[in-house]
Every structure is written in structure tokens, then in C-alpha cells.
Amino acid sequence: MAASHSDHSHQQHGHGRAFAVGVGLNLAFVAAEAAFGLLAGSLALLADAGHNLSDVLGLAMAWGAVLLSRRPPTQRHTYGLRSTSILAALGNALLLLVAVGAICWEAIHRLQAPQPVQGATVIWVAAAGVAVNGITALLFAEIAAEAGLPAGVLNVVTGDGSTGATLVGHAGIDKIAFTGSTEVGRAIRKATAGTGKKLTLELGGKSPFVVFADADLDAAVEGVVDAIWFNQGQVCCAGSRLLVQEGIETRFLAKLRQRMATIRVGDPLDKSTDMGTLIDASQRQRVAHYVALAQADGASVWHAPGSLPTQGCYYPPTLITDIGSASAAVQEEIFGPVLVSMGFRTPEEAVALANNTVYGLAASIWSESISLALDVAPRLKAGVVWINTCNQFDASCGFGGYRESGFGREGGREGLLEYLVARSVDA
User: Is 397 a catalytic residue?
Assistant: First the structure.
């Protein structure tokens, strides 16, 4: 089902419209990002942005030309021709818990450049078991249609797990991009083995947040808050493992507890809320289970003070200390507002602790010494490493992990190439 660039030359007008919609969706993401963890706020922002998408088509066409200029070029040589083929039929199976914000993220990395603008179409399977995902995906499809996305380019499908399994096993699908759990990612990889389908998996993580003694402690504390309590910790690249150099560990943790006490947990509809509710009751039970396991291992558990709303699946910001690296709370993805903390003495020990995980999605390093940070960064087994920041994403850079965090990249030139097949023709 692969088709060459020339086969799609008659669709150039449709490509331009897809470019325009893609950049418009990018603007929608910028609007929704401000309320990423607040579902209702994100819905409102996305709807507002959707009404204005058609107004940016002219500007978006210019951006489309820029994106085209960055596309892997066809290179002609004296005795050969190098070209790329587009994967025509593509499946996106998504397990999204961040609702609109995550849908916008997927739109940027899987709709704006890789697929429609290269002549491919998308079948988007929303997560089963979380009703809000299907609702927001359908709303997104309505906005895309209103903005002028050609019919058939984006196809949203809802259903249970068997729906995604059917898509994965369908012979007409050339590329599958999945965001979700490591367990489901393994099943998809097994199901596609030997089929020739290209595959991108963006799975779980247990990202380290490394603070060296020379770091700006106040800035690092704010970095921790953004890394783990953003969206209640329900983020694949959440900085859920804190590693602090022993000389500053006591002082840093005291500052962190003081800051945790000011995190406002409450109604997501309230603009003053810092942290809302978990996605459902089963997720809250999962979080509580891992905290109980840590306590059983002899760890110290500290919950941020303050009352929680009586209605909803709330869990307080939690810090776990005095815990061993073999504990389940350290090794397994909790996907909630729980931070585990350990100390280290040397950069070598920090690297060893950071890499002591089956995951490899993201990492964050905090130090005022750029030479130290740049020395440690390449030794961390993570697909993306931030220095003195976290959760910063550049659309020109590929994002993804390895080990049990998946493989392949989304965004940037790397993400574009995931949807192409290179070939050489010699004469």
C-alpha cells in the first residue's frame, strides 16, 4: 500500500489544506497547553481555537512551504535516483489520559507533518475504558472538519480493546503508532512481527530528576513540581524519581516539602487549582497500592497537608524517602502524584541510579556547571535529557524513548522519517 511522491502529485491542493490545518492545530495546542491538566478548561480553549482555525489558513500555507522545504528531498545523481515512498494507510492507537491536551500533542506529531501532508490518511483509535478520550477525540475531528481538513484524511474510531487489535492486525495498515502502556506495546510488537508494518511505540517511563550540589535549589524545586505533579503525575515522561546529591539532600527536601504544602488540590474547573483529580477510581487505587508497598518496605511517606475534596478521585502530592532502589515504587511506573527520592554522592553514582530502570524515556539534570551537565547527559539511558528544565518540547526535535519506553520518534525530522520508506533506483 505504499505510493510514491509522484503518485500523489494530483493531491497537492489537499496537501496544502492539510498543512494549513496542521499548523492551525499547533496553535490550538499552544492554547490548550495552558490548561493541560484541567479538562474543562482545555475543552473550552480547544473549542475557541477551533472556531479561529480557518482564519489562519493563509499563514499556515506559508508554514507549509517551510515544512516542505525540510522534507527529505529526492536527490538525483548521475547514475542513480534516491527517493522515498509514503506509507499510505496508517493506524494510530492512542491511550490518552490527558484528554484534549494529549490529543493536541498527538495532532502535532502525527497529523501536522508526518501523515496528511505526505499523502497518507489516519485511522485514530481512542482509548477504551476512558469515555472522555472518545468524546474529546470526536470533538477534535469535528474541529478539524470545520477547519477544512479533506474528508477521509482523519478517521476517528471508538470502541473497546478489540477495536485496536483489529486495526493492528489489518493487512491494509502500513504503519502503526501507539501511545500507552508497556504491556499493550509488547502485544502490538508481537502481533506485527513479520508483517512488514512500521511501528512507533511511546510507552511508559520512570524518569530520573537529578539535582547536583551546585544547582539553583529554588529553581530545581519548581522543576520538580512541574516534573511530577503536572497533570497529577499522569504523564509518560513524569520525573517520578528524584536523585539529590547528599550534601544538599536534607536542605533540598525541606524546601520541597514547604513547596508541596502550597500545591492547591481541588476542582479542575477552578482556575486557582494546581492539581486536579486522577482519571478514575481504579487509578487512585493503583497509586495507593504502590504507596502501601513502599511503606511495607520501610520507606517514609509524606503527604502534602490539606483536605481533599470528598467527591472525585483525588490523591495528595506525595513524597517517599528512605527507600531502596529495588522497591516496586522505585522500579515501576505509578502514573500518579507520587515522587520517590534517593541520595547519591558522585556523578558516577547518580548515573548508575538513574539508569537502574527498565525504562528509558526522559531525564532531567540540574546543575550550574554546564560542563558537568553535558558530561552526565550522554551517559543517561533516556531518549530525551533536559538540563535545568523539564517537559520542554521542541517541534523540530524527535521525542521518544528506548528499552521498555518504546522505540521510534515523534516530531522533528526523525518523526517524519518514521512514515517514509527509503529506496534507491540504479540505472
Answer: no
